[in-house]
Write a structure and sequence with these properties.
Layout (H helix, E strand, L loop, with lengths): L11 E7 L7 H15 L8 H9 L4 E8 L2 E7 L7 E9 L11 H12 L4 E5 L5 E4 L3 E6 L2 E5 L9 H9 L2 E4 L10 E6 L3 E8 L2 E2 L4 H10 L3
Parallel strand pairs: 4-5, 4-11, 8-9
Antiparallel strand pairs: 1-2, 2-3, 5-6, 7-8, 7-10, 10-11, 11-12
Length: about 220
Amino acid sequence: MTRRGAAVEIGLIETIRARDGRVPWLGWHLERLQGAIRSLGLSEPADDLTDLVRSAAGSGDRAVRLELHGGHAEISTRDVIPARSVGICVSTEVHQPYPHKTTRREQFGRAIAEARRRGFDDALLLTAEGYVAEGTAWNVFWWENGALCTPSEELGVLPGVGRRRVFELVPVRQERKPFGALAGESLFLVNAVRGIVEIRAIDGLAVPADPRTAELARAFWPD
């Protein structure tokens, strides 16, 4: 029981894809988790997280959610939603830096709720200066003059595991890009559970497809 007035330690989250019993990039997830523990001065986990995740993953295709509070790990699993192109909106929610995947996700909850009310699949958040930041549970990329680009980590976007995988596959340029400068560009979202997902429209306006996105999506998951 938490004592009245006592500070409640912030929680950390990792959402991890298990495919046919294998857990790609589990080491990356746990490396990011340890980095957040050190940076935020949180309690070290009492359990062997590798064993917990692998046990929860089983032999199927699941999304495993690992949540860490005060050194105590909680595990849950869910089905994986099939990847399909999405229609998103630009959220009225102003992006606040989110360099660690913590349970303090209120800005993203408000943004996805707004998107659903407006009839969109998801939302894109911009910084107070109008720079493209990230989705509610995704990193965003776009093709520009033959190069693949993504928002600079200096903006406080989450260093996603899916983002890291894209960096492993192809050269990526990090930029501070005003949203208006992306008109006519092809964009996609990525996270470590659903992989690469094309954006088909933003605020109801069609986004052009790019065959390189489909190529990356096919290469995303390791054999």
